[in-house]
Amino acid sequence: MKMISDQMQPFSMIYYLFLFLLIIFTPMLILSPLLHLIQLNLAFLFPFIMIIVYLLGVSYAFLFLLESWLILKVLYNPKNKEGEFPINSTNPAVIYWALNELLMHMNEKIFSMLLIPISVYSELIFFVFGLKKGKRIQLNPINDPYLTEIGDNFMMGLGALISGHHIIGGKIYIKKIKIGKNVTIGANALISPGAVIEDNVVVGANSFVKKDSVLEKSSFYAGTPAKLIKKI
């Protein structure tokens, strides 16, 4: 799930600084007790130390996920989360979007560094970052879970992408996407912000659903941009 925009350079710098410090200090924390154990001829304890360090890392990953939830739901949760703004705007909707992008990317990287399968933490990620979803759904990347609602029996093809924002000409457009029940999104299709896909709709492979489009129920859409092909 690739969730961070190329426009997020300041936040990317903070993220990579965090990783740099983690890479620098983690070996120090591991090697310091190891050297002490070697002096005491207790190096056989090293595997146990590595296990403990790994478990501490896993604990930190879930703790950071909890901290992300507190930040987004308690400390900073503006009422208005949609609209069109300059990308460098200090509007609360833009700041909230940026926080979601940053924290989502950091959480995913931490879990992946610990070699934890995505199936283990994906549901927690979706919950923390606000995805509203029904039952029996198959998902690929979603850029903005808090801007996405999905009904029951949803299927998403390989390479398809749902994005609640886009950036064009120095402006960012942020709007919720609503997807009904029994919807199928074909491979490599792109669903843009503000799109409404009603029940029993199929979107063809490689299709582009424009922002604020309404795809009427019981229909097949395809093309760039996606157009009604037939009723089903």
Q: What does it look like?
A:
- The strands form four sheets. The protein has a six-stranded mixed sheet, with no helix packed on it. A five-stranded parallel sheet has the order 2-4-9-12-15, with no helix packed on it. The chain has a three-stranded antiparallel sheet with strand order 1-8-7, with helices on one face.
- It is elongated.
- The chain is 41% helix and 21% strand.
- It is of the alpha/beta class.
- The two termini are 31 Å apart.
Order of helices and strands: HHEHHEEEEEEEEEEEEEEEE
Helix percentage range:
40-55%
Number of domains: 2
Unreliable spans: 1-10
**Percentage of β-strand residues:** 15-25%
Q: What's the arrangement of strands in the largest beta sheet?
A: 3-5-10-13-16-17
| Major sheet size, sense and barrel closure | 6 strands, mixed
The coarse overall form would be: elongated
State Rg.
21 Å
Number of alpha- plus pi-helical segments: 4
Let me know the number of strands. Answer: 17
Structural class computed from helices and strand pairing: alpha/beta
Give the termini separation: 31 Å
Mean pLDDT: 85
